[in-house]
Task: structure prediction
Amino acid sequence: MTRPQWVGGQAVLEGVMMRHHDRMVVACRRGDNSISLIAEKKVPLSKRCPLLGWPILRGAVSFFESLILGVHAINLSAAEVLQEEGEEMQGWQTFLVVFLGLALGVGLFFILPTWLAGFLPQRLQPVLLNLAEGLIRLAIFLAYLLLITRWSEMKRFFAYHGAEHKAIFCYESGEPLDVWKAQQFSTRHPRCGTSFLLIVMVLSILLFSLFGWLPLWQRIAIRLLMLPLVAGLSYEVIRLTARSSLPLLRLLSLPGLWLQKLTTSEPDNGQVEVALCALKAVVDPDL
Result:
């Protein structure tokens, strides 16, 4: 039996978005308890330009593409759940939201840590200063995750995140796509964005250390310029660990799986039903 191809997705407002090949489907639970489905054709950049499908390049492109589609999917779900007639965000507005979010993320997880590490004794070896910066980055990242888990409005979002993982696990295992089967699977998936971000944090320590400990403005410039490479390499690592059955590579995925205990929670049957609706619609448009 041919093994099902990978599907990607994310949680949205009261629902789940799934992506497969050139399709994106958003499924969400409306106030009247019905499930709405919004399907759109989204051809990946790597298909439009084969060069962008090369290893490492494909990861950097996928990272930025996922940010844009993620914001768009959340916007679609908000319109459905709230049932408002307001206009959806235009393309430039989506790009602006992504840009501001990315700028905040870069500032918080890359610029702030290297600035804080600058207060350490500069007589330390460059490798130690870079290591200290990396540990500060990880600490900020973990503090950020812990903070959002205390936000009560995020609890249902994390449950839909868990439902997304269960549905994808069920599909990739070749099991029937029903709620009971999907509920047997874990909420923690090796290709989750949480795991991806953790790999980004760790790889950045290794890559940034290659440049020594330069003045602040040069460190910031290097981190900005290296971000696409870090994202691309992280993408390849997470693909490798997800595909491989080697025990050593499986061990590399464990920290990301542990971290998902913060960003996923057990969904109820209704949430899994929504995730499966999105999954079925994206893998078989004729259903």
Observations:
- The mean pLDDT is 88.
- Residues 8-283 form one domain.
- The chain is about 65% helix and 10% strand.
- The chain has one domain: 8-283.
